[in-house]
Queue: 4 jobs
Job 1
Amino acid sequence: MKGEKHDVSAAYTYLNKAENFYEQIDFKEKKLANILANKARIDEYLQNWNNAIDAFSELLETGKNLKSMNTIADAGVHLVRIHIKKSASLVEWLQLIKKLGFYGIMALLKVLFQQKQRLF
């Protein structure tokens, strides 16, 4: 699996169609956030680090605007995983901490605490 190039064009096509549909309805913010998260996950899977970081950063801001701790935590966890996978520099880590802010760090701590409780 690693090193293989997978055709994800069908996934992108589906997500683009869903995005166009959701643009036309009320209460679209959460649905559009889900689409953004899925596109970001595809970029992370394909190791398109810059695209994935940009998309998850946008998702993080969307989560903050929606006051959704789950969205903030999801974006934060993926951003941390990406930084680990790409062996980010100290400067990149500091930028991530600044980007996460108080709510992002609190959401990450909550996720880590929940994971710890599941393991023990």
Note: Helices lie at 9-22, 29-45, 49-66, 69-85, 90-119.
Job 2
Amino acid sequence: MKNACLILLTWWSVVLGAHETVPWWGPVASVADVEKGVMSIGWRVPQASKSRFEIWDDQGIKQSNVVESNNRGICRVMIEGLNADSLYNYRVCSEENICSDVYSFRTPPTLGEFKPFTFLVYGDAQLNNDVHKNVANAMARENASFAVLVGDAVETPTEAEWTRFFECARSLLSTTLFYSVLGNHEQNSNWYYDFYEFPKGGGKDGDQWWAFWWGDVLFVGLDSNLQYLSAANFALFDKETLWLETVLAKEARYKFVFFHHPPFCSHPWANIALAATWAPLFEQYHVTAVFSGHIHFYEHLVRNTVHYFVTGGGSDPTSRLHSPRADGSVTGIEGIPHYLCVTVDFSGVTVRMVAVHGPKTTVMDTLYIFPNEP
């Protein structure tokens, strides 16, 4: 295994003495390259320093590396050569040998090999800390393979806001691989790119949009903000769209796409530019489902055989469904914090909308998507 550097740690405190504590951010682990078996993990220490990263499987310690942070305390490690579909444990220790809890992740199956799995989706976690924490805790209990945030982790991209996000999401991030796409509130900030290392796609640092495989299932994350603001953004949006078509043209058992702004929804903020530009590609290349946030409610729509989900219930689901409902709207639910639990197996895809009521959850919508069928 080679080490480079990437993970995120959530906000937690390790007691150094009677009165002194050290805060951390993280952890965040994701698959950087499925074909080469590369995982990325990143964390943040309170000041520039060295950390010791330890990872092991059921045979014991696999590797221990010393990692030096950047000048903002962010550490990253890239781990190569891990076995497919295997559970790994890891921890991070300070120079004083004060260690984090033990965290874990499971690697993807071999590229091209299908095994049933579950992933989670949620969005817009930026407004209510208590609600976000309840949602993240409920998601952590699902024991899913990975989770995707469809944008707006923070209200403004400040250090304090990111600290809040990682504190609230700690239980989820410590046991689940994690991916994100940019919302409008991240503002394409450097903090986002410092924190995350995703499979290389394109744009800034190769992480502005991305794609990865889970066995023979394709996942694509996009930046839907590029349609706004400037000629430079428009040019980059065209580049992203060309890349998207190339990726979607590949054969896959199922195809899932994630971005922040919904092209269709029962709200005035439905994005007609994305509907005109990307929706035809989703139809042409038989995308199974598209997941977005931005509007703070739940809605499921079907347009020309493609399933669209709006899942903006990560913290403050106060948006209202408008009448008449959008064409293709099947189900809409207002005012309920929630996430989506998606189970993928040989016969099709099951999507559950899970409502979160404090520590309790209730499934409020369940639907089945059969291969190549609406």
Note: Confidence is low (pLDDT under 50) at residues 1-23.
Job 3
Amino acid sequence: MNLEEIMEILIPYLELLKGFQFTYDNPLFWAGLVLTFLTLAWFWGGKKSFSFCLLTGLILLGATKLEIIITEMVVKGGERFDPFIIRTGSLFVIAIILVYYLFLKDS
């Protein structure tokens, strides 16, 4: 496999991430979580970084699932739904968790 073939395979997954769509079957999502875990484990230790990555992954997966459910409900009613508030809320919660892990949580 050359680089062009690999990019053809990964581009759809990258587009999903750019669209704030985090799914179980996206290998780039999991690679990002593993890379984040390995980077944070270097600085924080394994236990703290694992729990942070687990919470972050669950929040992102949950936000995507919630967005899909609400969009289906709103579209059935004939309205249009902008998922900005769900995306912003999930990033805000992740930011609060990051501040907690950086400044308050001891190993």
Note: The longest helix spans residues 46-76.
Job 4
Amino acid sequence: MSQTEFDQLNEQMLVKLFEISPDAATQSGKHKPYDLHLPHGGFKRLDDTLNLLESWHKEASRIADSAELTPDQGISLELLEMSLELQRFAIDDYPMWKMYPNGLEHPGWLLFLMAVREYAPLPDRVEGIVSRIGELPRYLGEFRQRFSNSKPVRVWTEIAIETCEGVPDYLAHLRSFSQDSISSSLLAQMDKNIAYANEDIADHKDWLKGMLDVSVEQFAMGREKFAKLLKIRGIDYLPDEILAIAEMTIHELKEERVIISGRISPDGTPEKAKQIVESDTPDTIEDVLAVTSSETENAKRFLIEHDLITLDHEGILNFVKTPEFLSSAIPTAALMMPAVFDKTQHGTYLITDPPDKADLRSLWNRAAIINTVVHEAYPGHFHQGAVSNSKPWMHQLPHMLIASDTMIPAYEMMEGWAHYCEKMMYDHKFCGTDKDALAMIEFGLWRACRAIYDVELAHGDVSIDEMVEMFVRETSTTRNSAEADVKGFSHTPGYGLSYMMGRKMVLGFRKELEHELGQRFDEKIFHDQMAENGNLPFHLAKRAVRSAMALR
């Protein structure tokens, strides 16, 4: 009975969570009546969420003390505790909510999600879009109250101003996108709400410009707090250990780059090899999208033909150019994951158009496209997201709480899996040329550099400019791309290290299982289990996967 009581409690609390955060409901695939509303824009939302998590955890722990939970329920309870600790950290230890003034980023992302994720007929989705556009002035007014007695970070304020410059154009795009599919009365309401919102966005932009005068340069949380954040996430490595691993990884990858470059270019230099690889680049971002779509189908066929993973879900993946107002948050590519409660597993593959042709060649040459397809689509994020949605929704609780003013959840499993897949597919000869190897090495250097500036910026030991210089020096990327990457990850502490460290954890775990199981180790089963448990923090996924494989 207590197991049933535990599940009933979670369902009741989910309703309360979505009442506080209707945006989380939309992202998770629960739409009515939530799609019509934005959350409170101020501190109230964070405080209400904290109070809910505290009462939820207290009652869930009481139930757990009275009877044995199932393994999945045990994991759910641990995730609830982690979510509570991350929420406390975001409020008390590192109050991003009164440091990061980009009030339009999250609502803008939400409007974009509703436009591209086909969970309902377009007129129904536009009704929610129109309603939420109408609530933007209220939301932004509440948001500005956060800074009554605090000062925003300067670089993040500059990013917020850029967002303000891009959102009105996106609202105009939404109108053009919708006008032929909705009633005249809804279109009239859309025009009214957009005009009202644009007025307030202009006022919000002026407010941000004024806040620049009182903004601060420093945003580091410090060594002690960063170590605490990693501990909450279940990461066993100390920050200085992560730095040492990243520096060693860069050294090893640069040695590999010299060897591979010698096989690509007659003169053997990485610079010349890079030019050869970049000579095969689509002409426009639209061509990049088309090639990405084609290579995604190739990856799916390869996985099936080589029996590397089970592909039995009917997922739909769209390929979309990143809206300009989101480009600071998505410097290269991203995957909008399918929602756990939506019947159709619908994902959106975002590709950012860089500012000039040199950046296009650097980011989106054909070898880079193929490597990114493996990471973002199959068997990486999209596949992992679709199959992991078959697990209890409580396994995604930390992801439901994501906002621009909270701590990111334990992404080392998701990013580690996708990064692992790059090498795994290369080893199986899907992308097995020297050009593919060079692209994979370059992305590996990116991930190691991200780990370095993640730790160093959190510690306060370096400036953003110093990390941009390091990025350019250690990789072959352009300064524009490096600056976008460092600034984009600067307000998500703990994310940048998730790629390199996650891959290290996945590879290490695979070796452990190969040793423990011997000839009973099955690569396909390992891949299936890692994908199925992809929403979990690594230490919990490791437990679930080990248990499942031991039973086979």
Note: The mean pLDDT is 95.
